[in-house]
Write a structure and sequence with these properties.
Strand 2 and strand 3 form a beta hairpin. The chain is mainly α. Helix content is 55%, strand content 5%.
Length: 886
């Protein structure tokens, strides 16, 4: 009997001890933790379970009393609800698919306050707010808002079939979580739809239809005083007929009467309005801002700010007025809507009902959709900016004091003499990349085998990222780049991706090593299917055509189906024709169209490529004949066609003809775009007609055409060339306020302008700013800076710039080396000039005759006989190499 009573009393005592411990943790009682000792061997777990079960049954019986309260009109009977499986996880809960009374529904379990962190008061406040707002939600009825079915303030009666392994067990659901049920929409999210169409983009009519659906839904919500607060493409659903429905009201609120009552960072970064990010009070116009971002995303089928971190986006949106960059092809009326919606001042944003009216007024009959990626890459480069000469001043080691810490941070050894082989030693490179770069540059390897032996002595971990970075860094140096590529593919457990093979094919084509290029392509063909693609053949055709091997490029197109299984379609034909035109053979391009027009479908771009080619040669009669041929094939000449004519007349400075073509295209119902006006304004500026160029800017605004980033870059170029540096700086500073992102061309233009006016600190600060805003520089960024350093004899800054290039994965090309050799010759730094000349030759690059003559003449004038003989021996090696390749 004693033993039995002991068994009963022991769990009781242990339960009391547990209760005492809980009281202690909550601040009750005076017993110290040291006095509270438990003996595990005295605890009867079976009896403890029995006591806990009795205790929980009393708690459940008390909670059951609460369920007898009168139900709200929006509350549902959970016994009729079956959850089938999880659809998604959100920030505030989990979404399930299920049925309610045989109705197909989506169920979101909102676990606010059930995470063990919120206090009882906070949980009660959240549930009270939820209850108040659901009372409004259930009255919503609009075709562009998900249909509300009902809600529940608890989930303990949910039925989840345990036989389905994909379902979540019932005990995983918080019993007091809130539960919202809406009609299930089967078409997935708008975000998923845009991702699927990322490459081919959406027709303009579809863009406007989706935008109207979203704007009408938001306008309806705002009319009911509801602010969604998390408008983004992931929260929009599409039904089977592509009708958009607004979903996920997890953070929606009834708009507060007092604006200061709505604060806090609620929503998704990238879509959040500046006032929300800045912690200021906000209202329904935060939804208008988010709509503007969604509208851009729908049009572009792309992510805004893909290269920026969330922290950078938040800061730039608030402080720099950062907005997504407008595509040049976007109709000006749609651009205006976006910019009005994401205005930094919420009071200047339109109401959603106004946005609906503006969208309804758009004309979608003439197209205007985003250009697909495969066509955008074939559009000619319209704007080219030239570098200008810079005045000089002397001091080898001089560095602008305010920029000295930034420059020295990039130099491993600032006091080391300028030498091409030491430029890659940087203190902040990735260790593997830095080690490999040092190995590949510390000596000149005579063969691929010698390089492979050197690489075998190190334990490098090969990855796609590492290979890509090395290929970028050494894409002008055959033995390091191809030797490393060959060595990497021999490493156990590593296989090059198709993209890296294609990149290597392009590098070999650029180097004119066609023997190695075709050898590599044959190797790709022996690998698994999918390695040799149209992208591979495009790179081959472009490189052959650029090097004037026109017949070989055409033969690749003829044979690529039989040899590699790559189909001949419209895109491939257009790529070939574009490559031939850019390779200075419009005649070959014309013959290709005639040869394949019956076997490959043509597009308007096929004819426009020819129009552009004939215009380049000033054969306007042939260009006009091609435009007539377009009509015969069912294509009307478009803005591309007329802009090609205008561009050619601009190059001739024949502005009378320019304006004639402009009037003709308008007469034919073809409106000019920003590209058209950019060509005209740039030509007027170069011809010294700056006032007329500025008049054109005003005319463009009257015509309703929105200036884009390239237009502003051209405007900056014109102002800088005319000596109006302050005006150029003002335009540059104003761009973010106009919703324009300053791209690499903009920065290059501004840097070139600063160098032109010998503004050394301004030019270097612009380069520094590019790093801060994640705008990747290219070789054209550095050329004016290198010229300026050579003329000013800034050897330490010159070394910094070359290291900075390497850190941005840029490899000096013939133009860069020629610039350095000529600049150092003119500044009397002949040792440096000889070093760079030698490095250029050893990399397999061929110096220009003018560069060689200048260097030899300078060496002769200084009596440097030994150095002159070495330079001439290097050139003999180049001549010998060309003889072997021939």
């Amino acid at each position: 009997m004693d033993s039995e009573s002991e068994e009963v009393r022991t769990p009781k005592r242990e339960l009391e001890a547990v209760g005492a411990l809980n009281s202690k943790m909550k601040g009750a009682g005076n017993q110290s933790s040291k006095d509270m000792i438990f003996r595990a061997d005295k605890i009867d777990l079976k009896s403890l379970d029995a006591q806990l079960e009795k205790h929980l049954s009393r708690v459940w019986s008390r909670s059951s009393i609460d369920t007898k309260r009168p139900k709200e009109e929006w509350e549902i009977d959970l016994s009729k609800l079956d959850l089938r499986y999880i659809v998604a996880h959100g920030a505030y809960g989990t979404v399930y698919r299920g049925t309610y009374d045989t109705r197909d529904v989506a169920v979101k379990v909102l676990d606010w306050g059930e995470d063990g962190v919120a206090t009882a008061a906070e949980t009660a406040a959240l549930r009270a707010s939820f209850k108040q707002e659901v009372a409004v939600w259930h009255k919503l009825d609009h075709p562009n808002v998900t249909k509300f079915v009902g809600a529940s303030m608890g989930t303990s009666n949910l039925k989840i079939p345990s036989k389905n392994s994909s379902n979540v067990a019932q005990d995983s659901l918080p019993s007091r979580a809130c539960c919202v049920i809406v009609d299930f929409v089967p078409g997935g999210t708008l975000k998923q739809y845009l991702i699927r169409n990322r490459r081919k983009k959406l027709a303009y009519k579809i863009v406007i239809q989706l935008a109207l659906d979203l704007s009408r839904g938001l306008s309806y919500l705002h009319s009911k005083k509801i602010v969604h607060r998390d408008v983004k493409t992931e929260n929009m659903l599409l039904d089977g007929n592509r009708n958009l429905k607004i979903a996920d009201f997890g953070v929606a609120r009834v708009e507060a009467m007092n604006p200061s009552d709505m604060t806090g960072e609620t929503g998704t970064l990238g879509y959040m309005a500046p006032e929300v990010l800045d912690g200021k009070p906000y209202n329904r116009r935060c939804d208008v801002y988010s709509f503007g971002i969604c509208l851009w995303e729908i049009y572009c089928c792309d992510m805004p700010y893909p290269d920026l971190s969330f922290a950078d986006v938040s800061s730039a949106v608030v402080r720099q007025n950062l907005r997504p960059e407008m595509p040049r092809c976007c109709p000006s009326a749609l651009v205006n809507i976006m910019r009005k919606c994401w205005d930094g001042n919420p009071n200047k944003r339109p109401e959603m009902v106004e946005v609906v009216r503006m969208l309804e007024a758009l004309d979608t009959s003439k197209g205007g959709g985003m250009i697909p990626e495969d066509q955008a890459s074939e559009i000619p480069c319209w704007v080219n900016f030239s570098d200008s000469s810079i005045p000089s001043s002397d001091h080898d080691d001089f560095v602008i004091p305010s920029l000295a810490p930034w420059l020295h941070a990039h130099l491993f050894n600032p006091s080391q003499p300028l030498n091409p082989t030491t430029l890659y030693q940087s203190s902040n490179l990735d260790h593997n990349v830095q080690s490999l770069t040092t190995l590949l540059t510390k000596q000149r390897y005579s063969s691929f085998q010698e390089l492979a032996q050197a690489l075998d002595t190190h334990a490098f971990q090969v990855s796609d990222g590492l290979v890509q970075q090395i290929l970028k860094r050494f894409n002008n140096d055959l033995i390091p780049v191809y030797g490393f590529f060959k060595w990497a593919k021999s490493q156990t457990g590593y296989v090059h991706s198709p993209e890296l093979y294609n990149y290597m094919v392009d590098i070999l084509g650029k180097m004119k090593r066609y023997d190695l290029m075709w050898e590599l392509i044959e190797e790709m063909a022996r690998l698994e299917k999918g390695y040799v693609t149209l992208d591979t053949m495009v790179k081959v055709m472009r490189r052959l055509a650029k090097n004037h091997k026109h017949e070989e490029a055409i033969q690749v197109f003829r044979r690529m189906g039989d040899d590699y299984g790559v189909g001949k379609d419209t895109k491939a034909l257009n790529v070939l024709m574009d490559a031939l035109v850019k390779g200075d053979s419009i005649e070959h391009a014309h013959n290709v169209l005639l040869e394949f027009k019956t076997s490959v479908p043509l597009s308007s771009l096929s004819f426009n490529i020819l129009v552009h080619g004939w215009c380049k040669l000033r054969k306007f009669d042939m260009a006009l004949k091609t435009m007539e041929d377009m009509k015969e094939h069912g294509f009307n000449p478009d803005v591309f066609s007329y802009t090609s004519l205008i561009e050619a007349h601009c190059r001739d400075k024949d502005f009378r003809k320019v304006y004639q073509v402009l009037e003709e295209m308008k007469k034919n119902g073809c409106n000019p775009n920003a590209v058209t006006y950019t060509n005209m304004m740039l030509a007027l500026g170069k011809a010294g007609h700056l006032s007329k160029a500025m008049e054109l800017y005003e005319k463009m605004k009257i015509d309703g055409i929105v200036a884009d980033t390239p237009f502003y870059s051209a405007l900056i170029f014109n102002l800088g060339k005319a000596g109006r540096l302050k005006d150029a700086c003002d335009i540059f500073d104003d761009m973010p306020k106009q919703g324009l992102v300053r791209d690499v061309v903009t920065y290059n233009t501004m840097i070139s302008t600063a160098c032109l006016h010998s503004k050394e600190e301004t030019a270097l600060r612009l380069l520094k700013e590019m790093g801060k805003v994640s705008c990747k520089p290219n070789l054209e960024t550095y050329h004016p800076l290198l010229k300026m350093c050579c003329k000013k004899k800034r050897m330490k800054v010159l070394k910094f710039l070359l290291v900075h290039m390497t850190q941005n994965d840029l490899s000096p090309d013939v133009g860069t080396y020629s610039l350095l050799v000529r600049g150092l010759c003119k500044s009397g730094k002949l040792d440096g000039a000889c070093s760079f000349f030698e490095d250029m030759v050893l990399q397999g690059l061929t110096p220009k005759d003018s560069t060689l003559k200048l260097l030899v003449a300078e060496l002769e004038s200084k009596g440097m006989v030994k150095e002159k003989a070495h330079v001439e021996s290097l050139m003999a090696r180049v001549a010998e190499k060309h003889t072997v390749l021939a």
